[in-house]
Specification:
Elements (H helix, E strand, L loop, with lengths): L3 E6 L4 E7 L7 E12 H9 L11 E9 L10 E3 L19 E5 L3 E3 L9 H17 L3 E5 L3 H12 L3 E5 L9 E4 L5 E2 L2 E4 L4 H10 E2 L3 E4 L16 E4 L8 H13 L3 E5 L13 E5 L1
Parallel strand pairs: 8-9, 8-12, 9-10, 11-13, 12-14, 14-15, 16-17
Antiparallel strand pairs: 1-2, 3-4, 3-6, 3-17, 5-7
């Protein structure tokens, strides 16, 4: 095994070489990273300095297990994250996937297909959790604020399940069954899905929408304090989930659309600022 690793680390997403391998707490797996993603989640972490100093960045990716400190060795050839927790936020408070090696808790990993879209497993799983929350709340309409990878996947999934969906995105999206606008939507909607790190976008949406009773956020979203106009809300933070298989189906179905918004990269390098309609970067390591 190589004794050292390279990684894109905080602050500033700088490339560092010759770092020691990460420690393996109980229940963790050491992964040789093969795919890594950089999306709006990571852009927000870099822009707002949300990460701990020196952690490897990149919230999602996929890797081959090479060592473990778990009761049983993982049997999968390729593992990808499908959930996070306040204790394990890759690229924020724990090592992420923009590294040649990273460590992750086995309980948050699942076997991933040998496909480029597996780099975005976490975003798809968060979208699946969003669908579950809104279905359990009995809502029929939602506004997705933000059109990055998570927002795009959430909108596609909700629309495919019969929700009336509006997407406010600064970029044009292909989303069958969605109303997509570069201007803030208005009208009556029961739920807002935060797919942005911009509190000002959410505040603008709050001023134009009525009937909102459910707010769904990710750990990278502004809190409900950004939404003064809506009053009392059922507030949910989604962390993803294991064992449902939804994320694989969603990515397999949506990749033909999403891949046109992903810029491919080879090897580790400092990610340029996202722009020009790109939803993310895909790294093959």
């Amino acid at each position: 095994m190589e004794p050292l690793r390279d990684a894109v680390v905080s602050p500033g997403a700088a490339l560092a070489r010759g770092l020691p391998l990460p420690p393996l707490p109980r229940g963790y797996v050491l992964l040789r990273v093969r795919l890594a993603a950089w999306t709006g989640f990571d852009e927000a972490v870099r822009a707002y300095g949300l990460c701990e100093h020196g952690v490897a960045m990149g919230a999602s990716g996929a890797g081959v297990p090479v060592d473990h400190n778990a009761e049983e060795a993982p049997q999968a050839r390729l593992l990808a994250p499908v959930c996070v927790s306040p204790e394990w936020l890759p690229g924020v408070g724990a090592d992420g996937f923009l590294a040649t090696y990273t460590a992750a808790p086995l309980q948050c990993l699942e076997e991933a297909p040998d496909a480029d879209y597996s780099a975005f497993s976490l975003h798809a799983s968060l979208a699946c959790s969003t669908l579950r929350v809104l279905a359990e709340e009995g809502v029929a309409s939602a506004v997705v604020v933000g059109g990055g990878v998570y927002g795009h996947l959430a909108a596609l999934l909700l629309a495919s399940h019969g929700f009336r969906v509006a997407v406010w995105s600064r970029y044009r999206l292909r989303c069958s069954g969605c109303g997509v606008s570069e201007a803030p939507p208005s009208g009556v909607y029961e739920a807002v899905v935060s797919a942005t790190s911009s509190a000002s976008m959410l505040a603008t949406a709050a001023a134009r929408l009525s009937g909102v009773r459910v707010y769904v956020a990710t750990p990278w979203s502004p809190g409900p304090w950004a939404l003064p106009a809506w009053g009392r809300l059922a507030v949910y933070t989604v962390y993803g989930e294991k064992g449902r298989g939804c994320w694989r189906r969603l990515l397999a179905d949506a990749w033909s659309v999403l891949k046109h918004r992903v810029v491919e990269a080879s090897g580790l390098s400092e990610p340029p600022v996202l722009g020009g309609g790109a939803a993310g970067y895909l790294y093959r390591l």
